[in-house]
Design brief:
The complex is a heterodimer. By secondary structure, chain A is mainly α. In chain A, 68% of the residues lie in helices and 6% in strands. In chain A, helix 2 (16-33) packs parallel to helix 7 (122-134), helix 7 crosses helix 20 and helix 9 runs antiparallel to helix 10 (175-193). The termini of chain A are far apart. Residues 250-259 of chain A have low confidence and may be disordered. Chain B is built from 24 helices and 5 strands. In chain B, strands 2-3-1-4-5 form a 5-stranded mixed beta sheet, sandwiched between helices. The radius of gyration of chain B is 28 Å and the shape is globular. The mean pLDDT of chain B is 86. Classes of the chains: A mainly alpha, B mainly alpha. At the A-B interface, helix 14, helix 15, helix 17 and helix 18 of A face helix 14, helix 15 and helix 17 of B.
């Protein structure tokens, strides 16, 4: 027993920094993600759940061709995991919350290991890992269930692949070879979670170039070392192009607005020159800054533009303008503070290469920018580079301070204090984003849960009339606070009653806004928000019975749902009697 | 034999002083680029000054200042007096201004070459810088608008002279050079007060270049006196300017002006650097493309996209390109093409040049600044571009191994530069020509007017009708300021126009109308017939005072309608 305790103690002592890092990471995760289980389905998740109800855990995967699966179009591993979660715990965000906690922690640990491996610096590894944990720019990965698995696991397998490929240089054959093959497998898995992970393959060449044996034919050797994944991904890529562009076509936003080639070429350079600032300045702060800058720089313009025009300018052009300038300042800071430190140059080059590589898919796919920033989830795979730059900048500033105050320990303390303070601030912003996400989801959850609670079953061939005293999301007939058409959400919610035709869920009928009634086989479903339209339906279809109608009334002021079927049926009877 | 003759010819050329060759070429290029400024005509500010000079004589615009004010740069005494001489003795004649431009632009170009050579010790960089400055199209307004050459070109000449002499002083340490350079700086200040940055620049140059012992003491001993006087002068000017109600009255969002200054001193130089290389017409072609590929959604919500194009998007692109240029300049520094001290001087000179603009121009109304402001700033910018181009050339030269490759590279570089300069010249010619056309419109109006109405009645009231709206609603004739003011200035010599109205710049703004009496005289201008008739009806104006004209936009001619106007008026009154 004593021996075991001694071994544990020895292990803890030898890995004390790693354990401190994990403890801090756990604390931060607990602090930020405590409310994640309270999230709810927002949009696409309803469709996925509908497919899972009908096809089982495979869900929408059953609709895909093998070519689409092999080519990675469907991100089938992410889809499969999501389907399983929906199947096991429908209407619950718990599996996604657990994945967010666990996989995000694992990713941080992997980043810690990679940074430590390349730089041999625990300080850099510690701050890179903690910044990665807390950076709020990617909050959508955690607050939107639909994006959780693909981003988290794609990065997990990418980082694992990188780490395995890196440590292989410490061993001789056959361990070396098995590690190499393992990293290829991880990369393939990452690809099937999110196809943009393919860019990691370029890093393998770079590692071979940096850490491989010195030989005259080094370049050839690096390619030869990775010939199998090259051929594999070339094949997959060919299939991908075939399915993506030729068979299905891909009318990107770019093609609708401007010839893509020029746009892609420009964005390949331009995106990396604006994104770096986004890691360090949360979106809200950037917008505040851009509004200030706008009034500062162009103060006579408020006369010219409407409020909407002014807001749009701030959110897009001015924020982008500032992002560019801040990015340039950061690049200059990295150049002067970090580049002169020779021992961290490899890590810096790794981060730069990773940063630019991860932007390539964004430019190629013509990733839509949510205002000046990308969609928040796209930043997750970019984040390791941002975290490394952060820690390198800390070291650079520390060295600068050391040359000024002459006391290394004081400089170290100040930098630790500043670094931890900034990381805490990012954690606070992330927590705020999570709370905002939960608050955004909560009315949807409350509203949808009330349907089953007050009316667990529906009549045969149900026709639902949903009315209310408040409208949501700018739609005149959206009487409950859900982002998709309630008609579709209610079909999924009541599917288990056996009264809803599965074909309509798969179609997906009523997914976008609209009303209507459809008969499929011996089942039918109808959804209305206007009584007059329902009366029209009943008048034109004498076979339909008033008893099929179920009425719901949502009181927007109190957030409560009422079953007013009887009143509705009486009203309909009166109306039809007159007819 | 032939080779011998050839060599002889070259040895003859080599014996000609370099300065003469450069000045001659500069003169020819200037004449070729700007020849059309001799065909310019008074457009707006010129009329205002002409009127004031006619009334107040040679010291017009200076009478309100005390001697101390004038010595502190108020009124730009030298520039104003020379301009006034031209307005007084050569009214409506562009030649005196053109001659100043033709003389001083080549000389300034030569001085740029010399400063560049002193700073970089590299003939190629100096030649490229000279070319950039000589053909810089962004600052064309300094020559192509008549009121600018005297103040802008001559003040820049004295600044360049001052710099040249001061750099020479730092080498030789001859006391008279120090005094002359400071005198030149002060002369430049009296030509144009925005050159006040030289008072800071010269001490900074001393700090950068002085390598002797007891630097601080020497510095204080040499500069303390004039530096204090000059800095107090400059500061009092800035405080006076910011204290005036005008600047704060137009501000929409009240942000402290010192904050504007801090922002402008960074943003103006940053945005302007690349604008020296990109003509604004070309920039406004790129901008819509840039906005379309990056912000397709934005423009749906913006009612006037041109404001976005002209301002923020242009600024954004300019800043991106400026960073590229800064990066290339840093590259030329690290490659050793220019020395660290030289880079520092250029940087300081470039930033300091913006100081008066950052202070006196709190915000811009377009991405590009008023072209004339950029003339003096083109000096450091040209040397920066020269260094960048030369370092890029050297960078490419590394890849050439054979002699033939080197020759081809040199030919390509020279060809590229020549094409660039030719393009710049063609832009300058186009801009000048555009001004000539604008001037011709004014000239046409003025000549028709003086021909049609050789003398004015007492207390004249001019009515000009027509269907035109030239640059402003109800501006009936193609003039760039109020027609009433132009007419007052034109006919002032007939003795029927009150002095005070010209001094008040009455009717100067476009489409302004009204009638005023003073000193027993009176003058009025109207485009609104009803308003004029109302005044006649009230007996404020007699109908005999009225001269009525109609300007036809179709054939750009005046018709005298005085008779029909009077008949109509009488008919209306009798009803």
């Amino acid at each position: 027993m004593n021996k075991i305790i001694r071994r544990i103690r020895a292990f803890c002592w030898s890995h004390k920094y790693g354990l401190i890092f994990i403890s801090a990471a756990l604390l931060l995760i607990r602090f930020m993600f405590r409310l994640l289980p309270n999230l709810y389905y927002v949009f696409d998740e309803w469709k996925l759940l509908g497919a899972v109800y009908i096809y089982g855990p495979l869900g929408e995967l059953k609709l895909l061709t093998p070519m689409e699966i092999i080519s990675g179009k469907a991100r089938f591993l992410a889809l499969l995991l999501t389907n399983i979660s929906l199947y096991v715990a429908p209407f619950s965000a718990l599996p996604f919350a657990i994945a967010s906690d666990v996989v995000h922690l694992l990713n941080a640990i992997l980043l810690y290991l990679i940074v430590k491996k390349i730089s041999k610096s625990k300080f850099l590894a510690f701050f890179s890992g903690l910044f990665f944990i807390t950076c709020s720019v990617d909050s959508q990965v955690f607050t939107w269930i639909g994006a959780t698995y693909e981003s988290l696991f794609a990065l997990f397998f990418s980082l694992l692949a990188i780490w395995l490929y890196l440590i292989r240089f410490d061993y001789k054959r056959p361990v070396n070879t098995s590690l190499k093959v393992s990293s290829w497998i991880c990369l393939l898995l990452a690809y099937y979670f999110k196809e943009t992970s393919i860019v990691v393959l370029v890093l393998f060449f770079w590692f071979d170039w940096m850490y491989g044996k010195k030989r005259s034919d080094k370049l050839l050797l690096t390619v030869k070392n990775n010939l199998i994944p090259i051929l594999l991904f070339c094949g997959i890529g060919f299939l991908r192009i075939l399915t993506f562009y030729v068979i299905h076509g891909h009318p990107t936003f770019a093609q609708q607005t401007h010839p893509s080639i020029a746009r892609i070429a420009f964005h390949l350079i331009y995106y990396p020159l604006t994104s770096l600032a986004h890691f360090y300045i949360p979106y809200d702060y950037m917008i505040k800054l851009s509004i200030f800058f706008y009034h500062f720089q162009y103060q006579f313009i408020p006369k010219v533009f409407s409020d909407v025009g002014e807001t749009v300018l701030n959110y897009y052009i001015i924020a982008d303008y500032l992002s560019f300038m801040i990015t340039v300042v950061l690049i200059v800071a990295i150049y002067f503070l970090v580049l002169p430190i020779k021992k961290y140059r490899t890590l810096l080059f790794f981060a730069v290469l990773y940063y630019f590589l991860q932007h390539v898919p964004l430019a190629l796919y013509d990733a839509p920018k949510g205002k000046a920033y990308f969609e928040s989830r796209y930043y997750y795979v970019l984040l390791p580079s941002g975290a490394i730059f952060f820690s390198l900048l800390l070291i650079g500033i520390k060295n600068l301070m050391k040359s000024i105050v002459r006391f290394e320990f004081i400089a170290f303390l100040i930098i630790c204090f500043v670094g931890c303070g900034y990381i805490y601030k990012q954690a606070v912003v992330m927590k705020r984003d999570v709370i905002a996400g939960v608050e955004y989801n909560q009315p949807m959850k409350t509203a949808m849960d009330q349907f089953i609670a007050i009316r667990p079953n529906l009549p045969d061939k149900p026709i639902i009339l949903l009315t209310g005293n408040n409208t949501y999301f700018g739609e005149v007939d959206q009487f409950i606070p859900v982002l998709l058409n309630p008609g579709y959400a209610l079909m999924v919610r009541y599917y288990k009653t056996g009264k809803i035709p599965g074909e309509l869920i798969l179609e997906p009928y009523h997914f976008d806004h609209g009303e209507g009634y459809r008969l499929v086989g011996n089942k039918a479903y109808g959804f209305y928000t206007q009584e007059s339209h329902l009366i029209e339906l009943l008048k034109s279809n004498p076979k339909l019975s008033i008893n099929q109608v179920v009425g719901f009334y949502y009181d927007g002021a109190t957030g409560t749902l009422k079953d007013d079927t009887q009143e509705v049926q009486l009203f309909l009877k009166d109306s039809l009697r007159e007819y | 034999m032939k080779q011998k003759q050839f060599r002889k010819l070259f040895s003859f050329l080599a014996r000609i002083p370099q300065d003469i060759i450069i000045t001659t070429v500069s003169l020819f290029v200037t004449l070729f680029s700007y020849w059309n400024i001799s065909k310019l005509y008074y457009l707006n500010d010129e009329w205002a000054q002409l009127g004031i000079v006619k009334v107040n004589g040679l010291y017009a615009s200076l009478q309100s200042f005390s001697l101390l004010d004038i010595l502190m740069g108020n009124g730009r005494v030298f520039g104003t007096v020379i301009n006034n001489i031209f307005f007084r003795y050569f009214p409506l004649n562009p030649w005196p201004f053109a001659i100043i431009a033709f003389i001083f632009h080549p000389i300034n170009s030569l001085l740029v070459y010399k400063i560049s050579k002193k700073l970089t010790s590299n003939t190629w960089i100096s030649l490229i810088s000279w070319g950039f400055f000589l053909t810089c199209s962004v600052s064309h307004q300094a020559l192509s608008e008549l009121t600018n050459p005297v103040q802008v070109l001559i003040s820049t000449f004295f600044v360049l002279l001052s710099l040249n002499i001061f750099i020479e002083y730092m080498r030789t340490e001859k006391g008279y050079q120090f005094i002359v350079s400071w005198l030149c700086a002060y002369t430049a200040f009296l030509f144009k007060d925005s050159t006040m940055y030289t008072f800071i620049l010269l001490p900074i140059l001393f700090v950068i270049f002085y390598s002797g012992k007891r630097k601080l003491i020497t510095f204080v001993k040499l500069h303390i006196c004039q530096a204090i006087i000059m800095i107090v002068t400059a500061v009092s000017r800035v405080i006076g300017y910011y204290g005036s109600p005008g600047i704060n009255a137009v501000a929409i969002v009240k942000i402290p002006l010192w904050m504007h200054f801090s922002n402008n001193i960074i943003m103006y130089p940053l945005a302007s650097l690349s604008q020296f290389l990109i003509p604004y017409r070309f920039m406004y072609k790129i901008v819509p493309w840039f906005v379309r590929i990056n912000y397709p959604v934005t423009m749906v919500y913006v009612t006037d996209p041109n404001v976005v194009y002209d301002l923020m998007a242009s600024d954004f692109i300019a800043v991106i390109l400026s960073f590229v240029l800064i990066f290339l300049f840093a590259y030329s520094l690290f490659r050793g093409v220019i020395k660290r001290k030289t880079a520092l001087v250029l940087g300081v000179l470039y930033i300091l040049n913006f100081m008066p603009i950052a202070a006196f121009l709190p915000w811009k109304n377009a991405s590009y600044m008023e072209s004339r402001y950029l003339y003096a700033i083109a000096v450091p910018a040209s040397i920066i571009f020269g260094s960048i181009f030369y370092s890029l050339f050297q960078f490419i030269q590394v890849f050439t191994k054979r002699k033939i490759e080197k020759v081809i590279l040199i030919i390509c570089a020279v060809l590229f530069l020549c094409l660039f300069f030719v393009k710049q010249i063609s832009i300058i010619r186009r801009e000048v020509y555009a001004n000539v056309i604008r001037g011709n419109n004014t000239k046409n109006v003025v000549s028709q007017l003086t021909r049609m109405v050789p003398t004015l009645p007492d207390k004249p009231v001019i009515y000009i009708g027509g269907e035109g709206n030239y640059g402003h609603f109800n501006q009936k004739v193609p003039l760039e300021l109020g027609p009433g003011y132009v007419i007052m200035t034109l006919y002032y010599d007939q003795g029927k126009i009150p002095k005070s109205l010209i001094n008040q710049v009455f009717l100067e703004t476009m489409a302004s109308q009204g009638y005023k009496e003073s000193e027993g005289k009176g003058f009025g201008y109207f485009w609104d017939k009803n308003q004029l008739l109302e005044l006649i009806k009230n007996n404020t104006i007699s109908i005999d005072q009225v001269v009525a004209l109609n300007y036809s936009t179709r054939d750009s001619t005046f018709t005298n309608i005085t008779k029909s106007f009077k008949e109509d008026a009488l008919k209306q009154f009798s009803q």
